[in-house]
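User: My advisor asked me to double-check a structure prediction for Carboxymethylenebutenolidase homolog before group meeting. I don't want to rely on an old file, so could you generate it fresh from this sequence?
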Amino acid sequence: MANESRPCPCDIGDRFDYGGRGQEVQVEHIKAYVCKPASSTDKAVIVIHDIFGWQLPNTRYMADMLAANGYIAICPDFFVGQEAWKPSNDWASFDDWLKTRNAGKIDKEVDVILKYLSEQCGAKKIGVIGFCWGGAAVQHLMLKNPHLKTGVSLYGVIRFFDNRSNLLHPTFFIFAEKDDHIPLDQVTLLEQKLKQNCKVDYEVKIYPGQTHGFVHRKREDINPQDKPYIEEGRMDMINWLNKYL
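Assistant: Sure, here is a fresh prediction for Carboxymethylenebutenolidase homolog from the sequence you gave:
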């Protein structure tokens, strides 16, 4: 995602050659990818995709990783049928594209998914994670939605904290030290606001030497120097969910 003043030339990274272990379902007006763990559980995680959409294999890989760790994982199409961004698109049109895909206007879809998880999957404790565009959406939900238990925002552009930083739920923020789209001074400012106003548990962590998208858009075998940080980011995410769900 972009820093407001500069649209992100968001690199799709290493596109995983990955088919997915879950299945696609229709939940009212929303298509979604669902993966369930081997044994039954009442814990679920909503996975919010990045600008490349709900079908990106990398994001489904992350959903399957959550299922392997005992969670019902669901990755809905939060663009609701609108086209995801493609690497071949002209970046000059990114701002216009983004106007019709607002990370702060997903409440209706989230309510539909929460109902589905509760009624169809038996979920009682539900968290949310999101990458890039989805990371910003997590920030919005942690400030607003009373029904979620916790959230992990991965390199989400910081945009919902201008006039409030009183998170409703424990939130973990993952940032990359060398993220071209999220300057570290913005991260520092976010930390200051949270320190002043936040009444719930939170953590802001910056991963050394990493770039935007590192947790889900880099493959360890292609980026051996980044492997420890990719694995650490994924483990930190799982540990946070385990703690609060």
